Amino acid sequence: MSATPHDTVGRDTTGDAIPGGYRIHMMLCAGTDCAGRGSYRVKEALEREITRHGLSHEVAIGMSGCRGHCGQGPVMVVNPGEIVYQGLSEHDVPRLVQEHVLQGRPLQERVHTLPPQTGTVPLISEIGFFGKQRLLVLRNRGIIDPEVIDDYIVRDGYRALSTALSTMTPEEVIQELIASGLRGRGGGGFPTGIKWKTCREAPGHPKYIVCNADEGDPGAYMDRTIIECDPHAVLEGMAIAGYAIGARKGYVYIRNEYPLARECLEKAIADAREYGLLGENIFDRGFDFEVSIHRGAGAFVCGESSALMASMEGRPGEPRAKYIHTVEHGLWDRPTNLNNVETYANVPPIILRGAQWFTSIGTGDVSENPWGGSKGTKVFSLVGKVHNTGLVEVPMGITLREIVFDIGGGIPKGKKFKAVQTGGPSGGVIPEELLDLPVDFDQLTRVGSMMGSGGMIVMDETDCMVDIARYFIDFLIGESCGKCLPCREGLTQISTLLNDICNGEADEHTITLLEELSNTVKECSLCALGGSAPNPVLSTLRYFRDEYEAHVREKRCPAGVCKALITYSIDPARCTGCTLCARNCPQDAISGENKKPHSIAVDLCIKCGICRDVCPHDAVIVH
Amino acid sequence: MPKLKIEDLETIAARRTKAMTVGQGAGRVKITVHLGTCGISAGAQRIKAEVMRLVQDAGISDVTVTSTGCAGYCSREPMITVQVMGQAPVKYVDLDEKKAGLIFDRHVLEGSIVEEYALGIGSEHTA
Amino acid sequence: MKQPLANQVYDTPLDEIMDRWKRDSSYLIEMLQDVQEHYRHIPEEAARRLSEELDVPLNRVFHIATFYKGFTLEPRGKYPIAVCTGTACHVKGGSRILENVMRELGVEREGQATQDLLFSVESVRCLGCCGLAPVVTVAGEVHGDTSTVKTLKIVEELRKHAQSS
């Protein structure tokens, strides 16, 4: 990843070295108040002035989050020297460039003297959890009220749409998307611009725009949060897609389990309609676009495009063979463009700020080949055995180690990191030795996992990899639509084999059989659900074969998870005899006197784990 | 309401900005409660109700209470952001009603940051 | 043209539901969602009437009602308990909570209600609150960072509340 003014914005403000070969680095505050007082207008004026002087290669101009230098906004930090300006307006710009850039002395009357540092509260932008995040899709999180359309308009809302409608042809919009290298955030990573182009050129009318908000991967909630934070960004992205492709009707297919997101979106659609930002003749440009909502009814397979469309037509969500493309034969057999929530939310900033800006973030080179890299940011749900859980947005190319340890803060309770699972049930686990892997579409696929929609579940030494594989297979058995045999029957057989291993009833041969069967299901299934279903098995086998072997050879579950292979006991050295476990044991299997070490009767114990949950002293141990 | 023209976006943005900027329409202090599904599960609605009650009971009119979606930091919900005129916004985490009350007394009314509950000042990096 | 076959009890809400979706069979899933919400399951009579009035084969109505996880053919309890078994919840013990709560409430199959019809227990794939794992919803209210013991406490309180009112 090469250093550019954009990926260094707000990162390196103290040192004298300005990355990217620039002499001066100017950062305007994009915090709510500074933006409200016109920091974006100042930035544009600065850019014009710098270009006029022919200094674009010497001076980098960017925006940063609020860095706490709050005087009277807009505030700008200039490096080297960390000089803070306040109260800037467009009118100050010519003198500022003259003095600071050309003469090399700060424009005194606008220099802000910082108030004495109060207390020990750190800057948000320097806190581990937030420090390495770069908000693009989530640029409005925590700032706008998602139910107030005016708040979105304050943050440049619907300006990308007005720009597209008034200054760009549909072909130009598509060209910009292709040049940006944006790839679908739902999992596959297909270049968005290419998909739009194919759909625009596909014969047949009317055409449809569909937004997939049926976020089915367990452990992932990016789409829900994007809608709950910034619903209009999704609608604006869809409307731009409608203009580019030549569609007048859009649908959002949203999970039924997300009531708040749905309400949020319903309100946003109604407000946009009232403003004429959806409906007929938007901005008097002769473009009509409507959006309505379809509720999902709970079927993971509906994340698959043809299944999703079947479901929208009121049928069971069963996929069809992949050679029929939904861009040509989609909803009601019409050309249909399907992208997910995060993909659409990326569109307005790309149109407003240009493909060149977008390609400055991320990995690879997409100038010749849209598959040549992963550009922009990705939102992940960082969850599981990690200190800081939450939704994180990072530039593509960041390493897993940075995400898990710098942003996530590492593993709680002094436990040891074991793996991180990405890509949902179609993905895989990534072990410790690959933690320095840069995260992008192609790298994750290379190591046997995938980007998926962005779930990132961290696991520690107490998570059994065989159990994890079994968990995903069982999930997929429940979700398999049953149309093709390899998926329907194959997964059930895989589950049986995994159960045998977990129950200590397997031998070496079981592992071989498991591997063979997994490959068969992968090869022969009809759709991507079945085709990727064995991934959790294959990737755990690839990196944690020793754990499988411990189960079959020594009849031992190293992580202490598989019930048939473990026993619970109480460590007398730690037990204080508080009686909490005995009182909560559903089997009355725990006995002992008050204030004396307790013990568990192994023959009564059903290994439900409640004693371990309630013990305040970690005295319950598993062998 | 009549349909928007392109130039109306500017007017709306200017009007709303004025209304919500601290020191202008939003008054002396703005309190933002972060209400996404996670925040609500962790009790953010109760925090918002408590903050509104405190503002009302104090009989002050220079404080604006607003809400946003999720702030992203699920393990530290519920969260609020307090911004006092002329100062950087401060994010508070792991709140309950009692802590909210203290923040109201010390930060909102008296203008001094409650360091023990504050996560940090300023805002996040944008790309 | 209404067939007298259907049980009268189901007429009014069902008519409202069908009218809401303009009796357009492409909204069959939405109608079934409303039916599920109203009756806490899809009663056989309701399925039959939808089939007749919308001119959709009964087998398709049941295909949909059994295909999607959001529908049940037997009534849920007054306070449905849904234990999240998404990946984050699974690694933090969600599947164990499900097992324990089912055993303690005497519920043998997922989706089944307790004898007094107060509670039903089922697993739910990810609720999207993974940051708060493990998560359980009781009567629609989300409880994060929970455990078997905490869930059973909520159950006890609701049971007392139901008995006193």
Keywords, please?
heterotrimer, A: 623 residues, alpha/beta, Glutaredoxin, Rossmann fold, de novo design (two linked rop proteins), 4 domains, 5-stranded mixed β-sheet, 23 helices, 37% helix, globular, C: 165 residues, alpha+beta, 2 domains, 4-stranded mixed β-sheet, 7 helices, 11% strand, disordered N terminus
What characterizes the major β-sheet of chain C?
4 strands, mixed
Question: Which outline of chain C best applies?
Answer: elongated
Give unreliable regions of chain A as ranges: 1-17
DSSP summary, beta strand count of chain A:
20
**Which fold name fills CATH's third level, the topology of the largest domain in chain A?**
Rossmann fold
* Coarse morphology of chain A: globular
| Structural domains of chain C: how many | 2
Strand residue percentage of chain A:
15-25%
Number of DSSP helices of chain C?
7
Ordered list of secondary-structure elements with their pairings:
The complex is a heterotrimer of chains A (623), B (127) and C (165).
Chain A: E1 24-29, H1 32-36, H2 39-52, E2 59-64, E3 76-79, E4 83-85, H3 93-103, H4 128-131, H5 149-154, H6 159-167, H7 170-180, H8 192-201, E5 208-213, H9 222-229, H10 231-245, E6 249-254, H11 259-274, E7 279-282, E8 287-295, H12 305-312, E9 336-340, H13 341-353, H14 355-359, E10 362-364, E11 373-375, E12 377-384, E13 390-395, H15 400-407, E14 417-422, E15 428-431, H16 441-446, E16 455-460, H17 465-479, H18 485-502, H19 508-524, H20 528-532, H21 535-553, E17 568-570, H22 580-584, E18 590-591, E19 599-600, H23 610-614, E20 620-622
Parallel strand pairs in A: 1-2, 5-6, 5-9, 6-8, 12-16
Antiparallel strand pairs in A: 1-3, 3-4, 7-8, 10-11, 12-13, 14-15, 14-16, 17-20, 18-19
Helix pairs in contact in A: 6-10, 6-13, 7-8, 7-10, 9-10, 9-11, 10-13, 17-18, 17-21, 18-19, 19-21
Chain B: H1 6-20, E1 29-34, H2 37-41, H3 44-58, E2 63-68, E3 80-84, E4 90-92, H4 97-109, E5 118-121
Chain C: H1 11-20, H2 28-39, H3 44-54, H4 58-67, E1 79-84, H5 87-91, H6 94-105, E2 119-124, E3 136-138, E4 141-143, H7 148-164
Parallel strand pairs in C: 1-2
Antiparallel strand pairs in C: 1-3, 3-4
Helix pairs in contact in C: 1-2, 3-4
